[in-house]
Design goal:
Length: 496
Amino acid sequence: MNQHDKIIERQVLGSIFMRPESIDEITFLEPEDFYDPLNKLVLKSIRRLHLAKKEYGSASVYFDLKTHKEINSKDEDPYFEIINNLQTEINESQSIGRFARIVKGYSRDRQIHAEIAKLTDNSASVEDILKRIQSIHEATQVDEENPVIELASVSRAHEKLTDKWESEKKNPGIKTGLSNLDKLLAGGLRGGDMFGLAGSAGGGKSAFLGQVAYDAAYNGALILYFSFEMPVDEIYARLLSRAHYLKTGKMIDSRSVHIGEFEQDQKQSVQDTGHAMNEATGGRLLISHPPVMVTPNHIREAVKQARREHPEVKQTVVILDPLQRLMLGESATIDKKQADYLNRNEIDRVGILASEIKRLADNENIAVLFASDTTKSGAAGGQSSTQTLRGSYMLNHVCTVVGGIHTATTPEELAESVVGSFSTNKDAKETIKKNAKKPSWVTDDFDHEDSVDRFTHLEISKNRRGSAQNLNYFFMANTMSFFDATDEDAEEPGVK
């Protein structure tokens, strides 16, 4: 059992110490389901004290184990410290029931592996072992159809809120690198967040998500970037082009970086930038161009694997570009036949995917950002971004923030794109044109003749963290770089 799995067992026990009544929510879990010997003893003691209607905190469990001579006297002090520290290891944003089910599942897997191992020493027939495995599945099945529903009193709700406050202090929002976006998100991205970004083809969705991915990794988060349309080398070339510009102030088009078409004296500078990027992100930025038929379960397993490789990182972000390329697979609620049927209907599939991804975000405490193909009517402009997500109803329902990205070469074209070519709302168009600015350092003597300048308007139509305030950026398309156009103190890249 790896360290990540051991932590899950301790999360269950710590949750019981913090909220003793939760023992009634996990009646299906037995001490034998734990792998760690001490964890087994702790749950055994808790069950014993609960049956005797006695209190069961860390101290009472320690003395109960000592009374029943289930811990060695010479190891008393280490045991007491370990047991006492259990209640500091819980994650209040997670459900004890979910963790208990994970522990139960691991227990079942160990039993099945033990049965399969008997095949190698011919101690049982295949038929007997298959029957035994079936009985193990039946004996360890948790009733998902009738889960225990927690009803929180005002007092319990207040406890949850104060726990949330403490959690915010320990794990502040994940910085995106864009100050106005972080402000919109009340400090940054958080576990359980879903940020949907709609936009037409070529509108800058992937460039925007790529920039957030790199900057969030730079700021300490673990990033899993799943690009279903671009290969890994192309995404990296985009990030490298931007990083080189920010570092040196010299532009090399991302397409040139991708194919290696630059001057010999630039090659070393680009390579140095690549080394600096790797050092800055510490291996926390992981990019994938997945094969077809990737499901939420594949994403979940990838997250677990990445966390096992980076146990020191506490914050995780998953980027899906675009979400509509995910497929449904078999699960506890959908069999293969149902999944195949739903995968043929995009609206139904995306609606269920939205719920699956939101469940993943909540259960794994990760932030999810996704690009969404826009509807045909959305591509024409003049619609709220909440109405332009493909499979929009459920996507909008589960999202924390929904934004629509619009990019154009001039403020006038941007206004037409956002408001719509046939709209007569002149005030809205004038407001957009007025806010379409360049950063203060892009002056008349700005000498980057290779710059491909664009204006970007991020229309925020939903924001559960605060007001739905629209954001504006200056986009250098050749280096895939977005800049906050309202940041008066920003300096030109490469000047330091």
